[in-house]
Protein backbone atom coordinates (compact mmCIF):
# COMPACT_ATOMS: atom_id res chain seq x y z
CA UNK A 1 0.00 0.00 0.00
CA UNK A 2 2.83 2.31 0.84
CA UNK A 3 4.43 1.52 -2.49
CA UNK A 4 1.19 2.23 -4.29
CA UNK A 5 0.87 5.51 -2.50
CA UNK A 6 4.42 6.44 -3.39
CA UNK A 7 3.84 5.44 -6.99
CA UNK A 8 0.68 7.49 -7.12
CA UNK A 9 2.46 10.52 -5.79
CA UNK A 10 5.27 9.98 -8.22
CA UNK A 11 2.91 9.67 -11.16
CA UNK A 12 1.10 12.83 -10.18
CA UNK A 13 4.39 14.67 -10.27
CA UNK A 14 5.39 13.18 -13.61
CA UNK A 15 2.09 13.83 -15.29
CA UNK A 16 1.59 17.39 -14.20
CA UNK A 17 2.31 19.39 -17.32
CA UNK A 18 4.84 22.14 -16.74
CA UNK A 19 3.05 25.39 -16.12
CA UNK A 20 4.01 28.17 -18.43
CA UNK A 21 5.86 30.85 -16.51
CA UNK A 22 3.52 33.48 -17.80
CA UNK A 23 0.01 33.32 -19.18
CA UNK A 24 -0.03 33.25 -22.97
CA UNK A 25 0.30 36.80 -24.18
CA UNK A 26 -0.59 36.06 -27.76
CA UNK A 27 -3.95 35.49 -29.37
CA UNK A 28 -5.11 32.86 -31.84
CA UNK A 29 -5.74 35.67 -34.31
CA UNK A 30 -2.17 36.88 -34.08
CA UNK A 31 -1.03 33.33 -34.55
CA UNK A 32 -3.09 33.00 -37.71
CA UNK A 33 -1.24 36.01 -39.09
CA UNK A 34 2.11 34.54 -38.08
CA UNK A 35 1.28 31.26 -39.78
CA UNK A 36 0.35 33.02 -42.98
CA UNK A 37 3.33 35.34 -42.85
CA UNK A 38 6.95 34.67 -42.22
CA UNK A 39 7.12 34.91 -38.45
CA UNK A 40 7.55 31.24 -37.66
CA UNK A 41 11.05 29.92 -37.82
CA UNK A 42 12.90 26.72 -36.97
CA UNK A 43 15.78 26.13 -34.63
CA UNK A 44 17.65 22.85 -34.72
CA UNK A 45 19.01 20.96 -31.76
CA UNK A 46 21.92 18.61 -32.49
CA UNK A 47 21.74 14.93 -31.60
CA UNK A 48 25.00 13.05 -31.08
CA UNK A 49 25.66 9.38 -31.49
CA UNK A 50 27.55 7.99 -28.51
CA UNK A 51 29.31 5.17 -30.36
CA UNK A 52 30.84 7.44 -33.00
CA UNK A 53 31.00 10.69 -31.02
CA UNK A 54 29.50 12.40 -34.04
CA UNK A 55 26.69 14.77 -34.80
CA UNK A 56 24.18 12.35 -36.31
CA UNK A 57 20.99 14.35 -36.61
CA UNK A 58 18.99 17.38 -35.61
CA UNK A 59 15.54 17.97 -34.17
CA UNK A 60 13.53 20.81 -35.68
CA UNK A 61 11.96 23.00 -33.00
CA UNK A 62 9.54 25.74 -33.97
CA UNK A 63 9.93 29.33 -32.75
CA UNK A 64 7.80 32.38 -33.28
CA UNK A 65 9.83 35.44 -34.09
CA UNK A 66 7.23 37.79 -32.72
CA UNK A 67 7.51 41.42 -33.85
CA UNK A 68 6.81 42.79 -30.36
CA UNK A 69 7.73 39.98 -27.98
CA UNK A 70 10.84 38.53 -29.58
CA UNK A 71 11.54 34.84 -29.97
CA UNK A 72 8.77 32.71 -28.42
CA UNK A 73 9.06 29.00 -27.65
CA UNK A 74 6.41 26.50 -28.76
CA UNK A 75 4.94 26.08 -25.28
CA UNK A 76 3.67 29.66 -25.44
CA UNK A 77 1.73 29.26 -28.67
CA UNK A 78 1.20 25.64 -29.70
CA UNK A 79 -1.65 25.21 -27.18
CA UNK A 80 -3.51 28.03 -28.96
CA UNK A 81 -3.54 26.34 -32.36
CA UNK A 82 -6.83 25.20 -33.77
CA UNK A 83 -6.86 21.78 -35.36
CA UNK A 84 -6.62 23.19 -38.86
CA UNK A 85 -3.80 25.51 -37.83
CA UNK A 86 -1.97 22.57 -36.28
CA UNK A 87 -1.95 20.78 -39.59
CA UNK A 88 -0.79 23.87 -41.39
CA UNK A 89 2.00 24.28 -38.89
CA UNK A 90 3.24 20.73 -39.40
CA UNK A 91 3.13 21.13 -43.14
CA UNK A 92 5.12 24.34 -42.85
CA UNK A 93 7.67 22.84 -40.44
CA UNK A 94 8.20 19.75 -42.57
CA UNK A 95 8.69 21.77 -45.75
CA UNK A 96 10.98 24.26 -44.11
CA UNK A 97 13.07 21.54 -42.43
CA UNK A 98 13.48 19.64 -45.70
CA UNK A 99 14.55 22.88 -47.41
CA UNK A 100 17.11 23.57 -44.71
CA UNK A 101 18.40 19.99 -44.92
CA UNK A 102 18.79 20.42 -48.67
CA UNK A 103 20.87 23.52 -48.04
CA UNK A 104 23.10 21.57 -45.61
CA UNK A 105 23.44 18.80 -48.16
CA UNK A 106 24.70 21.32 -50.68
CA UNK A 107 27.37 22.16 -48.13
CA UNK A 108 28.24 18.47 -47.83
CA UNK A 109 26.39 17.78 -44.58
CA UNK A 110 23.84 14.96 -44.39
CA UNK A 111 22.06 14.46 -41.08
CA UNK A 112 18.93 12.71 -39.94
CA UNK A 113 16.07 15.15 -39.53
CA UNK A 114 13.54 14.85 -36.70
CA UNK A 115 10.23 16.71 -36.80
CA UNK A 116 7.61 16.79 -34.06
CA UNK A 117 4.13 15.76 -35.18
CA UNK A 118 0.77 15.08 -33.53
CA UNK A 119 -1.54 12.08 -33.74
CA UNK A 120 -3.80 14.26 -35.84
CA UNK A 121 -1.00 14.76 -38.35
CA UNK A 122 -0.30 11.06 -38.61
CA UNK A 123 -3.90 10.18 -39.28
CA UNK A 124 -4.36 12.77 -41.99
CA UNK A 125 -3.47 11.10 -45.28
CA UNK A 126 -2.75 14.35 -47.09
CA UNK A 127 -0.02 15.27 -44.70
CA UNK A 128 1.66 11.90 -44.84
CA UNK A 129 1.38 11.99 -48.61
CA UNK A 130 3.11 15.33 -48.64
CA UNK A 131 5.91 13.99 -46.45
CA UNK A 132 6.14 10.88 -48.55
CA UNK A 133 6.54 12.80 -51.76
CA UNK A 134 9.09 15.17 -50.31
CA UNK A 135 11.24 12.57 -48.61
CA UNK A 136 12.38 10.24 -51.43
CA UNK A 137 14.23 13.15 -53.05
CA UNK A 138 16.25 13.83 -49.94
CA UNK A 139 19.09 11.58 -48.84
CA UNK A 140 18.64 12.13 -45.12
CA UNK A 141 16.52 10.02 -42.86
CA UNK A 142 13.33 11.75 -41.74
CA UNK A 143 12.04 10.85 -38.29
CA UNK A 144 8.59 11.83 -37.09
CA UNK A 145 8.50 12.34 -33.32
CA UNK A 146 5.23 11.76 -31.57
CA UNK A 147 4.75 11.96 -27.82
CA UNK A 148 4.15 8.74 -26.00
CA UNK A 149 0.66 9.76 -24.92
CA UNK A 150 -0.30 10.76 -28.46
CA UNK A 151 1.05 7.45 -29.71
CA UNK A 152 -1.48 5.72 -27.49
CA UNK A 153 -4.54 7.37 -28.99
CA UNK A 154 -6.95 4.80 -30.29
CA UNK A 155 -7.47 6.42 -33.66
CA UNK A 156 -3.74 6.16 -34.27
CA UNK A 157 -3.45 2.55 -33.24
CA UNK A 158 -6.43 1.62 -35.34
CA UNK A 159 -5.30 3.47 -38.42
CA UNK A 160 -3.16 2.61 -41.38
CA UNK A 161 -0.34 4.77 -40.11
CA UNK A 162 2.10 1.90 -39.88
CA UNK A 163 1.64 0.93 -43.49
CA UNK A 164 1.76 4.51 -44.71
CA UNK A 165 4.97 5.27 -42.86
CA UNK A 166 6.66 2.18 -44.19
CA UNK A 167 5.73 3.05 -47.74
CA UNK A 168 7.02 6.57 -47.29
CA UNK A 169 10.43 5.70 -45.90
CA UNK A 170 9.67 7.71 -42.80
CA UNK A 171 10.66 6.61 -39.33
CA UNK A 172 8.77 7.11 -36.14
CA UNK A 173 10.12 8.10 -32.74
CA UNK A 174 8.27 8.03 -29.43
CA UNK A 175 9.06 11.31 -27.66
CA UNK A 176 8.97 12.05 -23.94
CA UNK A 177 9.08 8.34 -23.28
CA UNK A 178 8.37 7.29 -19.72
CA UNK A 179 5.89 10.07 -18.97
CA UNK A 180 2.84 8.49 -20.54
CA UNK A 181 2.96 5.04 -18.96
CA UNK A 182 2.08 3.35 -22.20
CA UNK A 183 1.59 -0.31 -22.42
CA UNK A 184 4.56 -1.63 -24.31
CA UNK A 185 2.44 -4.14 -26.16
CA UNK A 186 0.35 -1.31 -27.55
CA UNK A 187 3.46 0.47 -28.68
CA UNK A 188 4.39 -2.60 -30.67
CA UNK A 189 1.53 -1.94 -33.06
CA UNK A 190 3.38 1.10 -34.38
CA UNK A 191 6.52 1.00 -36.54
CA UNK A 192 8.85 2.57 -34.02
CA UNK A 193 12.56 3.05 -34.76
CA UNK A 194 13.46 5.18 -31.78
CA UNK A 195 12.46 6.14 -28.24
CA UNK A 196 13.43 9.40 -26.61
CA UNK A 197 13.66 9.21 -22.87
CA UNK A 198 12.05 12.25 -21.32
CA UNK A 199 14.26 14.91 -19.83
CA UNK A 200 12.61 14.51 -16.41
CA UNK A 201 14.21 11.07 -16.06
CA UNK A 202 17.54 12.09 -17.51
CA UNK A 203 18.53 15.36 -15.91
CA UNK A 204 18.92 14.10 -12.33
CA UNK A 205 20.01 10.61 -13.20
CA UNK A 206 23.16 10.77 -11.12
CA UNK A 207 21.33 11.51 -7.88
CA UNK A 208 18.04 9.65 -8.29
CA UNK A 209 18.05 5.83 -8.24
CA UNK A 210 14.44 5.65 -9.50
CA UNK A 211 15.34 7.72 -12.54
CA UNK A 212 18.36 5.63 -13.31
CA UNK A 213 16.29 2.43 -12.97
CA UNK A 214 13.86 3.76 -15.55
CA UNK A 215 16.53 4.91 -17.96
CA UNK A 216 18.34 1.61 -17.63
CA UNK A 217 15.16 -0.37 -18.29
CA UNK A 218 14.16 1.72 -21.32
CA UNK A 219 17.66 1.47 -22.76
CA UNK A 220 17.63 -2.29 -22.33
CA UNK A 221 14.23 -2.51 -23.96
CA UNK A 222 15.44 -0.39 -26.86
CA UNK A 223 18.50 -2.53 -27.31
CA UNK A 224 16.45 -5.69 -27.34
CA UNK A 225 14.04 -4.21 -29.87
CA UNK A 226 16.96 -3.04 -31.97
CA UNK A 227 15.90 0.60 -32.00
CA UNK A 228 17.71 3.85 -31.17
CA UNK A 229 17.50 5.14 -27.62
CA UNK A 230 17.92 8.88 -27.33
CA UNK A 231 18.42 10.51 -23.93
CA UNK A 232 17.21 14.10 -24.01
CA UNK A 233 17.86 16.97 -21.66
CA UNK A 234 21.53 16.33 -20.97
CA UNK A 235 22.80 19.34 -19.14
CA UNK A 236 25.68 17.85 -17.19
CA UNK A 237 28.79 16.03 -18.21
CA UNK A 238 28.77 13.60 -15.33
CA UNK A 239 25.69 11.68 -16.49
CA UNK A 240 27.24 10.81 -19.83
CA UNK A 241 29.15 7.70 -18.67
CA UNK A 242 25.97 6.45 -17.00
CA UNK A 243 23.95 6.84 -20.18
CA UNK A 244 26.63 5.04 -22.12
CA UNK A 245 26.75 2.27 -19.53
CA UNK A 246 22.97 1.79 -19.71
CA UNK A 247 23.14 1.49 -23.47
CA UNK A 248 21.58 4.74 -24.68
CA UNK A 249 22.67 5.22 -28.28
CA UNK A 250 22.18 8.97 -28.76
CA UNK A 251 22.21 12.10 -26.63
CA UNK A 252 20.67 15.53 -26.95
CA UNK A 253 20.67 18.45 -24.53
CA UNK A 254 21.75 21.97 -23.67
CA UNK A 255 25.07 20.58 -22.38
CA UNK A 256 25.93 19.48 -25.92
CA UNK A 257 24.20 22.22 -27.80
CA UNK A 258 21.17 24.42 -27.45
CA UNK A 259 18.86 24.61 -30.45
CA UNK A 260 20.53 26.83 -33.08
CA UNK A 261 19.45 28.53 -36.33
CA UNK A 262 19.74 26.49 -39.53
CA UNK A 263 22.84 28.25 -40.79
CA UNK A 264 24.82 27.23 -37.70
CA UNK A 265 24.42 23.50 -38.38
CA UNK A 266 27.10 22.86 -41.05
CA UNK A 267 29.81 24.35 -38.83
CA UNK A 268 28.64 22.21 -35.90
CA UNK A 269 28.73 19.13 -38.11
CA UNK A 270 32.30 19.85 -39.18
CA UNK A 271 33.42 20.63 -35.67
CA UNK A 272 33.91 17.00 -34.71
CA UNK A 273 35.32 17.13 -31.25
CA UNK A 274 34.56 14.08 -29.16
CA UNK A 275 31.38 14.57 -27.15
CA UNK A 276 33.21 14.71 -23.85
CA UNK A 277 35.44 17.54 -24.95
CA UNK A 278 32.46 19.35 -26.38
CA UNK A 279 30.69 19.11 -23.08
CA UNK A 280 33.72 20.33 -21.22
CA UNK A 281 34.19 23.15 -23.74
CA UNK A 282 30.59 24.26 -23.36
CA UNK A 283 31.01 24.41 -19.60
CA UNK A 284 28.33 21.80 -19.10
CA UNK A 285 30.13 20.20 -16.18
CA UNK A 286 29.72 23.43 -14.28
CA UNK A 287 25.96 22.97 -14.56
P1 LIG B 1 10.33 18.03 -27.31
O1 LIG B 1 10.03 17.49 -28.67
O2 LIG B 1 10.51 17.05 -26.20
O3 LIG B 1 11.63 18.93 -27.52
C1 LIG B 1 12.65 19.09 -26.57
C2 LIG B 1 12.46 20.38 -25.79
O4 LIG B 1 13.38 20.36 -24.69
C3 LIG B 1 12.81 21.64 -26.58
O5 LIG B 1 12.06 22.70 -26.05
C4 LIG B 1 14.28 21.84 -26.24
O6 LIG B 1 14.73 23.16 -26.39
C5 LIG B 1 14.27 21.44 -24.77
N1 LIG B 1 15.57 20.96 -24.32
C6 LIG B 1 16.49 20.29 -25.03
N2 LIG B 1 17.57 20.01 -24.28
C7 LIG B 1 17.33 20.53 -23.06
C8 LIG B 1 18.10 20.57 -21.84
O7 LIG B 1 19.22 20.07 -21.73
N3 LIG B 1 17.51 21.20 -20.77
C9 LIG B 1 16.27 21.76 -20.86
N4 LIG B 1 15.79 22.38 -19.76
N5 LIG B 1 15.53 21.74 -21.98
C10 LIG B 1 16.05 21.12 -23.07
P2 LIG B 1 11.10 23.56 -27.00
O8 LIG B 1 11.82 23.91 -28.25
O9 LIG B 1 10.59 24.65 -26.13
O10 LIG B 1 9.93 22.57 -27.40
C11 LIG B 1 8.99 22.15 -26.47
C12 LIG B 1 8.04 21.15 -27.09
O11 LIG B 1 7.25 21.75 -28.10
C13 LIG B 1 8.76 20.01 -27.82
O12 LIG B 1 9.21 19.06 -26.88
C14 LIG B 1 7.66 19.51 -28.75
O13 LIG B 1 6.78 18.63 -28.05
C15 LIG B 1 6.90 20.78 -29.06
N6 LIG B 1 7.30 21.25 -30.41
C16 LIG B 1 8.43 21.92 -30.76
N7 LIG B 1 8.44 22.17 -32.08
C17 LIG B 1 7.31 21.62 -32.61
C18 LIG B 1 6.74 21.52 -33.93
O14 LIG B 1 7.30 21.98 -34.93
N8 LIG B 1 5.55 20.88 -34.05
C19 LIG B 1 4.90 20.34 -32.98
N9 LIG B 1 3.74 19.72 -33.20
N10 LIG B 1 5.41 20.39 -31.73
C20 LIG B 1 6.59 21.04 -31.54
MG1 LIG C 1 10.68 16.10 -29.83
MG1 LIG D 1 10.96 15.20 -25.77
MG1 LIG E 1 8.89 17.58 -24.33
Automatic annotation (TrEMBL):
Full-sequence range covered: 107 to 393 of 396
GO terms of biological process kind: phosphorelay signal transduction system
Organism per entry: Halomonas korlensis
Domain EAL: 24-273
Superkingdom of the source species: Bacteria
GO MF terms held by the record: cyclic-guanylate-specific phosphodiesterase activity
Lineage: Bacteria, Pseudomonadati, Pseudomonadota, Gammaproteobacteria, Oceanospirillales
Name listed for the protein in its UniProt record: EAL domain, c-di-GMP-specific phosphodiesterase class I (Or its enzymatically inactive variant)
